[in-house]
Amino acid sequence: MGADSRGGIALNESRLRLFHTTLAIATAGILLVFITTPSETWKTIAPPDAPAALAEYIATHPADAKAAAKITDAALDYPIPKRHELWHAANDLARFLEPYRTNAQIAFARAGVFHWAELSEGERKEVLASIGPLLNDANRFQALSQPVWALTHDLELLVRYAPRTESATLQLVELAATNGEFDAYRRLRDEAHRLRYEEAKAKLATLTAPQLLQLLRPPFRVADEPLIVDVLHELQARPLDEDPQSPAVDALIEYAIDHHLAPLEGLEAITRMKDAASTAHRARLAIALELPDRANDLEIGSAELSPAWRSYFIERAEFESAHGNEDRAATYRAKASLATTHDQQWSGLCGAELCTNAHAELEGPRNVTVETTAADEVPPWVELYVDEALRDEGPVAPKRTFTIPKGRHRVELQLANPMTRNRSRRRVRIA
Predict the structure, then answer these.
(1) Which residues of the chain have pLDDT under 70?
(2) Which of 123, 174, 113, 173 is nearest to 144 (CA)?
(3) I need a surface site. Which of 18, 182, 212, 237 has the fewest CB within 10 A?
């Protein structure tokens, strides 16, 4: 449905006559109702559902927008020769009567979608033009985005009308990746990060300390750093004084220390809370805050040789060396060396295959090859993160080799489209 030079609804000649006739009847009906019905006895009457009764009702209630919308919704189901003309005319009347509401748009679009195969190319364009503005509502977008995609395969239509929220954009990110629209996927991924930061930043000043941590969603990337820094500054102003019960705490401590972010004083209470974070991460935080006695208490009795403890031993060695305790520094370097032999394996795999994310600490330079074990028209899209920064990405068709740079690095492989279009799990393994 196009627009005329005055910005109104463009109608062909026969539909224009029908519209004007209906408009005249509607105007007369409105005047008759107001002249003959006292305002104190005015009541809303729900239009009937049966076609014959609905036709009789609209004849006597020509200004009832709900009735016009009902006819719009059902017209293409009626076994009459001119049901398409009725569909259009009822829609025109409903939109005229309620130009600022979406009832008519919804009815017109729903009827068109259910009878899509029967529509002309022009009518399909009208339906899509009616659907588009409806997608601006977050709830409708969540409900309609998948059906509209299945109907049109027009991602740009969805992007154009989607609400500018992180939630809606993440739906588009998943849709793009699953269906092989990889240029759009990368653009939308960046947009989702931007919107997430904007939405979170608007809330920062109103949240409690535990709620601030709820804003953070690991695994963290370099793109998340502005939000992490903002949260740390807010916690500096109102420090934690209770267990935040957040799964993000370990990842926050790890990212902040690994990337030399500050301030950390707002997290100090976590070093004293047994269940707030893992013992290794609490020890790392204690030594970062220059609380060696507290770190000693956490270290006693721990026999783990995990990557987190290896990081702690390295950081403790640096702390002792900076304070002139070279013997103690040498002891911690030896512990770090022993732990290093235990952290070369990938974690987060489903057997030998990528679920979504796999992590390892690896010594470079070296290559990591991933390959598909089941074919699909849309290839898997795998991203390589080195020290939380996106280093490389691309399709695995059927193999792809990533290069890890020289030195010891935290490495992550992420499968951006873990599900195929028919909702089966993709099969990708680290070769």
Answers:
(1) 1-45, 303, 341-344
(2) 113
(3) 237
Q: Cα–Cα distances in Å, from 37 out to 44, 59, 372, 386? A: 12, 18, 73, 75
Q: Return the DSSP state at 389.
A: E
Give the residue carrying structure tokens 């909702």.
423
Pick from 356, 328, 323: nearest CA to 425? 356
How far apart (Å, rounded) are the C-alpha atoms in residues 58 and 62?
Answer: 5
Give the contacts of 5 (CB within 8 A, at least 6 positions apart).
none
CA 203 to mean position of chain CA atoms: 18
Task: Give the position of tokens 């300390």.
Answer: 209
As a whole number of angstroms, the distance between CA 364 and CA 342 comes to: 16
What pLDDT is attached to residue 384?
A: 98
Tell whether the torsion through CA atoms of 271, 277, 283 and 289 is positive or negative.
negative
Rounded CA separation 116/127 (Å): 9
The pair of structure tokens assigned to 215 is 């804003």
**For residue 343, what pLDDT is reported?**
53
DSSP 424: P
Exposed / middle / buried, residue 287 (Cβ in 10 Å: 0-12, 13-18, 19+): buried
- The CATH code belonging to domain 347-430 is 2.60.120.260
* Structure confidence at residue 257 (pLDDT): 98
Would you list the domain boundaries of the chain? Answer: 13-134, 198-340, 347-430
Cα 17 from Cα 34, distance rounded (Å): 26
Any idea which residue has 């990212």 for tokens?
Answer: 255
**CA 273, CA 243: separation in Å to the nearest integer?**
7
